[in-house]
Amino acid sequence: MDYNGLIIVFMCLARCIVTYMLCLSHRHVATVVSGTELARQIHKEVQSDIAKLVAQGSRRPHLSVILVGDDHASHTYVRNKTRTASLLGMSSSTIFRPSSVSQEEMLELIDKFNRDRSISGLLVQLPLPEHINERAICNAVAPEKDVDGFHIVNIGKLCLDQRCMVPATAAAVWEIIRRTGIETVGKNVLVVGRSKNVGMPIAMLLHSDRNHERPGGDATVIMAHRCTPLPRLKELASLADIVIAAAGVPHLITADMVKEGAAVIDVGINRMQDPVTGKHRLVGDVDFEAVKVKAGFITPVPGGVGPMTIAMVMKNTVTAAKNAPTY
Amino acid sequence: MDYNGLIIVFMCLARCIVTYMLCLSHRHVATVVSGTELARQIHKEVQSDIAKLVAQGSRRPHLSVILVGDDHASHTYVRNKTRTASLLGMSSSTIFRPSSVSQEEMLELIDKFNRDRSISGLLVQLPLPEHINERAICNAVAPEKDVDGFHIVNIGKLCLDQRCMVPATAAAVWEIIRRTGIETVGKNVLVVGRSKNVGMPIAMLLHSDRNHERPGGDATVIMAHRCTPLPRLKELASLADIVIAAAGVPHLITADMVKEGAAVIDVGINRMQDPVTGKHRLVGDVDFEAVKVKAGFITPVPGGVGPMTIAMVMKNTVTAAKNAPTY
Q1: Residue B206: which H helix or E strand, with range?
Q2: Least buried of B66, B74, B106, B281, by fewest C-beta within 10 Å?
């Protein structure tokens, strides 16, 4: 090869490299935020808190769960919670009741557990059978043992920016944002879904004042839900620096909706059957593969908000144990 | 004048008329929603409710107000409330305390009034002196007599879409929207201001489900506040079908922000001194004259949300009287 040929080959090579790098810079891929990894951090903190409590002579934290009926998903969730509790050095117990249980029996059981000083945290796995008033059950749990944060006084405190038991899924989203270093002050946050256990408390945490007793995110928060027409949802999503999908609609959030570089947090857990294999798998509310290429941060399903939610139940239980009277 | 001349004059005239009509159709002016007028409607309903209660042999509703210190605006507000109560056939009493009053004395007073069956509704005029914990005072008022809707259980119920005492200003905004026939389902509502007594409860009412125990507006709600940068506020306002200004910033909402035909509800009451005359006057958070030309509906200040807020305190007091035990 002569000198000119060498130059041509070299230039072609250089061009290829430049094109490839340009491609790379455009083929932006989001940081996938591992909830499993973040949950591990929280587990370590909880373990250390438990060790301190026990070293101080306090009782080892104990989580009691009341589980009604045979719902498969509920049984899985409860097992995950008690298994994690045991891994972190917390004791736990699950009380099973058939779906025929009366509301009266439930209230008696809760009352007994409220008065039992060996129990730090108490949760009643939802949903409950139709003949039981869920609100009455949530309000029966002593607010200071209410590790789900569903008691009306805990909801009131949450909405008034007071220190309280924050519902675990909302707390999980908050911790993911905080620990990933995603900025919220003055940013636009779109919360899709307005459930009282997830969407509403997330909106409360993120819009409120960072200088209040329970610090908030100081973000501009958009509360969207099933009544928001799709074109309007798209329009609002395109303005959002953070999208929190908690609607329970598989793949509701698509790539065309999301702003380049946005943080996308997927709270959805939808059980879908593969039309070909017939197997069930969990999918989120976000079209993960497509959105990943456009977003700045994204949480996967499974392995995102799920493990963090369990970690926050553990954290709430230790908080309850810390606040318990020592007499 | 010959025939041709007549035709020219006629055509000129016709052109003038068409131009004027076109002008008129573009010089759109909003419907000014009179809060005073709507409040009169509510007064009539309250009067009729009181008459029914008394006819049934129930006690005449009674509103008790505790007023601390010498704040001029607070004294005016309280006088407006007790005067309206008396006009509607309700009895009322105002208990004055100096700003040196102790929290303990306040709590004792509230406790006494809570137990007094002749009192239907009880409110403590805010703000209170710094040495008194407002939250402790609000939570001391019996929830069923809490006509301001500030007790934590009433806030919790509001946020859970349960029937409750709705804070009067939020209830006033709700009634203005409802009675004016402004559609909310699937609409974009921008709430500017996130105070716990006004902005937050308005957002709660408007975003929630119309089929719940306490029906909501089913709107997509944007919660903006002092941390929302002005360009972002403008961007979001331009998408809003309803703008609710509750920031306490004079003339924050300008005509360039508002979408043509939007409903603009002004909750702001700002006391401003005229730089020329030196006189004080009340102005809202909305640049009324300029926005009026662009909006579809607009509430004035004064004469908008203000009189409706007082009407809603009256309505809450009658509700409290209706729900009071009859033993």
Answers
A1: helix B199-207
A2: B281
CA dihedral B173, B179, B184, B188 (to 10 degrees): -50
Chain A residue at shortest CA distance from B232 = A188
Q: Using CA atoms, how far apart are residues B182 and B243, in angstroms rounded to an integer? A: 12
Cα four-point dihedral sign A266, A268, A271, A276: negative
- Are residues B314 and B88 in contact, defined by beta-carbon separation less than 8 angstroms? yes
CA distances from B204 to A32, A197, A210, A299, B109 (A): 33, 14, 20, 28, 32
pLDDT value at position B31? Answer: 97
Whether B155 and chain A come into contact, CB under 8 Å, resolves to yes
Residues from chain B that touch A207, judged by Cβ atoms under 8 A, are 194, 223, 225
The answer to whether A188 faces chain B, any CB pair under 8 Å, is yes
- pLDDT tens-digit map of A161-177: 999 999 999 999 999 99
Within 13 Å, how many C-alpha atoms sit on residue B171's CB side? 25
What are the C-alpha distances in Å from A20 to residues A6, A14, A291, B43? Answer: 21, 10, 22, 73
Instruction: Kindly provide the ipTM of the predicted complex, given to two decimals.
Output: 0.90
B59-88 pLDDT, tens digit each: 999 999 999 999 999 999 999 999 999 999
pLDDT of residue B275: 87
Is residue B9's pLDDT more than 80?
A: no
Q: What is the pTM of this model?
A: 0.91
Matching residue, tokens 């958070």: B285
Residue at token pair 């509906």: B297
> For residue range B231-275, what is the model confidence (pLDDT) as tens digits?
999 999 999 999 999 999 999 999 999 999 999 999 999 999 888
CA angle A173, A239, B263 (to 5 degrees): 105
Cis before residue A61, ω within 30 degrees of 0?
no
Q: At B319, is the secondary structure helix, strand, or coil?
A: helix
Task: Annotate A30-97 with DSSP letters as a single string.
Answer: PEE--HHHHHHHHHHHHHHHHHHHHHTTPPPPEEEEEEES--HHHHHHHHHHHHHHHHTT-EEEEEEE
A2 is catalytic: no
**Structure confidence by residue, pLDDT tens digits, A192-230:** 999 999 999 999 999 999 999 999 999 999 999 999 999
Question: Which residue in A135, A220, A235 is closest to B223 by CB distance?
Answer: A220
